[in-house]
Specification:
The protein is mainly alpha-helical. The chain is built from two helices and no strands. Helix 1 runs antiparallel to helix 2.
């Protein structure tokens, strides 16, 4: 069985990379990788996510504004 923490970390890294890149092809690739990790997380034996809990909202690393070094 895969390490759930590793899958969660990799999903977040790919989502952050998708937000940070300006290249459309790279952004789409990172989103695709994140989606793959998301599917593996849902299939994991531990009940971290379920259809009832998953809101489908996009990850927002800066929900209150300020984009880090880019602001």
């Amino acid at each position: 069985m895969e390490d759930l923490n590793h899958l969660l970390h990799r999903e977040q890294v790919e989502l952050l990379r998708a937000q940070a890149t300006r290249c459309v092809a790279a952004r789409n690739r990172h989103r695709l990788l994140a989606r793959g990790y998301s599917e593996r997380i849902r299939a994991h034996r531990l009940p971290y996510r379920s259809g009832a809990v998953d809101s489908g909202l996009r990850f927002a690393p800066h929900p209150f504004g300020g984009e880090g070094w880019r602001s």
